[in-house]
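P.,

For your records, the input lines for the assembly:
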Amino acid sequence: GAVVSQHPSWVICKSGTSVKIECRSLDFQATTMFWYRQFPKQSLMLMATSNEGSKATYEQGVEKDKFLINHASLTLSTLTVTSAHPEDSSFYICSALDNYEQYFGPGTRLTVT
Amino acid sequence: RKEVEQDPGPFNVPEGATVAFNCTYSNSASQSFFWYRQDCRKEPKLLMSVYSSGNEDGRFTAQLNRASQYISLLIRDSKLSDSATYLCVVIGSGNTGKLIFGQGTTLQVKP
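Structure tokens returned:
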């Protein structure tokens, strides 16, 4: 199956700083990628749909100015958490769409201190 | 009401047991249905798609009841390696590809 990578796999940052997470489709091109967030013992919640060459579509309640998404190429989408706060600590997972099937990245665990 | 609802469990069963998970969804226009498996601190992995006619993959059987908006997963002859969280996932109407995840049901298979 298709492979999706994420980088970094985990990151610790200080409150107020920004963190960039990369999502790459390694062996296919993805015009659409998705960003999810998962808090402990909770389900994955879709944050936004990332479309190559256009603006991301954010789900209700997700601040687009805080979670900046850039999908500049068919194999890379980035999520930047700006001015991170401890409540942003979570597991961030991306997925890429290939022929109507979604392939998930391994996730990035963000801890904001 | 959540779009996809599951009993979070945990379900603690002995090896060899048969266990069933249920899931309900609220949007009658939902198009596609899946069961994913998620191990602790890992990404979810597709276990199987769910079809109206029901489908089986080895020890796993999935059923869909569109009239009741109900999906089930049956695991026979449970193995220790089946211990994980099982996520019921629905794709809504339209062709956006957006997956809607249930909370997940945790299964712990004990020796």
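Two observations worth noting. The radius of gyration of chain B is 13 Å. Chain B touches chain A through 17 residues (CB under 8 Å).

Regards
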